[in-house]
């Protein structure tokens, strides 16, 4: 069968042979054995419903083995034999070009070069899944190959419910991931219901098919580091020879060392999984691998003396570095953490003093002991960070739930009021007031032709548009504009592409719409092929996350999720090709609601109309919410937008003087 025929087939007509899992691949850790005897039978029953009855006896035994050995039923027998990667949009069998674009994006998310655990359909973050099992993948690709522009595919946590009649103006795909009844959104609920095969953790851009490899995170990390150094250094100082210490090269890719190189500092990223660290080194995302703490200390001191820009992956535990650097009196300028602490008990964070192999054994065989070890390590981790911050280190939470889980472990991370953390989230101090409140967020695009020359052309188009906008931009956003112009001009030189021919930059509503319009015109004129637009959920409007994206919301509403829900509904009828809404992406199951979109540009008038309508709302919905929270930068931004767009009417807050409130109670 040809590639196209295999995609069209869906569940195969004949039972494929059982496959052996490949060796020397980065496998997902075994999940917790949490199901009762009856629930395990239910999990098998749920899995078998994808297949004809005559296969059930053989598959039941196999699926029971998978559940026992891995804690999940991945249906590995049904993984396709063809290579999974983003092809040119023209290579996909589809009646709808929009559907073909979605097929391309799905395959990019599962490309072994891109995905963290591709055998288990996990893209990043330790558990950020595109689908729960390979049957779901097969069915979704089958439905997309059949879809017309008057149908919509509804996907429930990876499961394709089916094609429903809709209209040309409707989204082609609606995705939900992990949308639980609130009282069933604790970490063990994910373990249980994911093992049953009825829900999944879509992370942010995994289950919405918009992950573009490390590049997506590199840009946000670069912007964060540049502004963090601006906060701690004088105007005369540069980041050369200054240290940024962090952890996590598996779940959060190789973004941190690459961002550190672009920002011009010494980056040290600890990673306990040798395969993950080696993969990032081979891909060029980190300059040097070191597995001995003494060698690390020697190399860092040399880098400081020479004012080097270098990134080092330390194969080991980051707690060791914090403690030894304290003993050696090596000053850390910036400190953070990007381990996958949203899943602390299932491999998101590995405790100090225990080997990687032993930790993985404890996760599946002695989970309560593993939890104790993790919490003990977090207390130790936080204690060492506190020692450094007393010396002047600027530590910030990178939105991975480090401070949240440390506080739950009893670590010394709380401020004197016992309510707030003693360290800020990077959104509170940096991205919130400097970017999100002004409407700047992660605007992404993928050249669906797969041609590198198309990406080069879009880079030039975007740079030209931004430079023109900057000529008349107010001083309040000049820094953001210049940072992103510099970024896009250097993007090719910095070798950002992994998988699809994709790019990201931060832009506001004006920038996004004008860049997208210029792309659409270039497509219409035959200069480039079709382009898929999207963004990270980590954005102005997409996410309600009290410990990250909305951590700089101080009116008491940061624990509400109205904005994300409004965002996905509003985008869906304003022209998005697909929309998604997730529980848990980024900071953990039950801690956040986040949504995203994808949009195909094909050079048509309809595409231009859709992009202008949807991108405008996608950004300004969030600015309106942030301005209502009395954020000064957002009030400035929404007033400016209302002046430019007479049809926009937003409720503005009346500000109250503090002295009126002081003696009321």
TrEMBL record:
Its main location: cytoplasm. SUPFAM superfamilies: Urocanase. One of its GO terms (cellular component) is cytoplasm. It catalyses: 4-imidazolone-5-propanoate = trans-urocanate + H2O. This is Urocanate hydratase. Residues 436-639 form the Urocanase C-terminal domain. It comes from Polaribacter atrinae. One of its GO terms (molecular function) is urocanate hydratase activity.
């Amino acid at each position: 069968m040809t590639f196209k025929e295999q995609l069209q087939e869906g569940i195969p007509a004949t039972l494929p042979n059982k496959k052996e899992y490949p060796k020397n691949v980065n496998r997902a850790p075994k999940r917790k054995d949490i199901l009762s005897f009856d629930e395990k039978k239910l999990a098998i029953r749920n899995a078998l419903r994808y297949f004809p009855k005559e296969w059930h006896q053989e598959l039941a035994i196999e699926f029971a083995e998978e559940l026992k050995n891995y804690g999940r039923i991945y249906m590995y027998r049904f993984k396709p034999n063809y290579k999974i990667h983003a092809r040119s949009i023209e290579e996909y069998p589809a009646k709808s070009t929009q559907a073909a674009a979605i097929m391309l994006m799905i395959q990019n998310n599962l490309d072994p070069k891109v995905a963290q655990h591709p055998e288990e359909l996990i893209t990043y973050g330790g558990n950020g899944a595109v689908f729960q099992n390979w049957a779901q993948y097969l069915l979704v690709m089958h439905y997309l190959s059949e879809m017309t522009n008057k149908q919509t595919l509804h996907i429930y946590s990876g499961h394709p419910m089916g094609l429903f009649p809709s209209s040309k103006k409707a989204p082609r795909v609606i995705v939900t991931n992990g949308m639980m009844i609130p009282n069933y959104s604790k970490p063990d609920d994910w373990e249980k219901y994911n093992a049953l095969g009825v829900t999944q953790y879509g992370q942010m851009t995994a289950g919405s098919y918009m992950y573009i490899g490390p590049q997506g995170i590199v840009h946000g990390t670069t912007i964060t580091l540049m502004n963090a150094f601006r906060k701690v250094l004088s105007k005369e100082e540069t980041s050369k020879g200054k240290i940024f210490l962090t952890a996590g090269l598996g779940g959060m890719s190789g973004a941190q060392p690459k961002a550190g190189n672009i920002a011009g500092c010494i980056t040290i990223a600890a990673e306990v999984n040798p395969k993950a660290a080696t993969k990032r080194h081979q891909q060029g995302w980190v300059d040097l691998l070191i597995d001995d703490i003494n060698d690390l200390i020697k190399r860092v001191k040399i880098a400081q003396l020479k004012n080097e820009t270098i990134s080092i992956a330390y194969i080991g535990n980051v707690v060791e570095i914090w403690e030894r650097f304290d003993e050696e009196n090596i000053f850390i300028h910036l400190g953070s953490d990007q381990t996958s602490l949203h899943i602390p008990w299932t491999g998101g964070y590995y405790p100090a003093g225990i080997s990687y192999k032993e930790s993985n054994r404890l996760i599946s065989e002695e989970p309560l002991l593993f939890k104790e070890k993790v919490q003990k390590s977090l207390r130790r981790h936080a204690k060492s960070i506190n020692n450094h911050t007393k010396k002047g280190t600027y530590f910030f939470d990178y939105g991975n739930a480090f401070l949240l889980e440390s506080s739950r472990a009893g670590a010394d991370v709380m401020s004197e009021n016992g309510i707030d953390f003693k360290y800020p989230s990077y959104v509170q101090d940096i991205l919130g007031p400097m970017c999100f409140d002004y409407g700047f967020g992660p605007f992404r695009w993928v050249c669906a032709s797969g041609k590198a020359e198309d990406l080069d052309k879009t880079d030039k188009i975007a740079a030209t548009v931004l430079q023109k906008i900057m000529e008349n931009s107010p001083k309040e956003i000049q820094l953001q504009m210049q940072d992103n112009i510099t970024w896009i001009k250097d993007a090719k030189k910095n070798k950002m592409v992994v998988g699809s021919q994709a790019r990201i930059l931060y832009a506001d509503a004006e920038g996004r719409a004008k860049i997208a319009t210029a792309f659409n015109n270039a497509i219409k004129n035959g200069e480039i092929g079709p382009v898929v637009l999207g963004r990270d959920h980590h954005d102005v409007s997409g996410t309600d996350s009290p410990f990250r994206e909305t951590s700089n919301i101080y009116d008491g509403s940061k624990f509400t999720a109205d904005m994300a829900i409004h965002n996905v509904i509003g985008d869906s009828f304003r022209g998005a090709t697909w929309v998604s809404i997730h529980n848990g992406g980024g900071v953990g199951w039950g801690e956040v609601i986040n949504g995203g979109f994808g949009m195909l540009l094909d050079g048509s008038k309809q595409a231009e109309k859709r992009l202008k309508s949807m991108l405008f709302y996608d950004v300004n919905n969030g600015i309106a919410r942030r301005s209502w929270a009395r954020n000064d930068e957002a009030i400035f931004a929404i007033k400016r937008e209302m002046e430019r767009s007479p049809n926009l009417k937003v409720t503005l807050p009346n500000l109250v003087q503090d002295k009126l409130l002081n003696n009321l109670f």
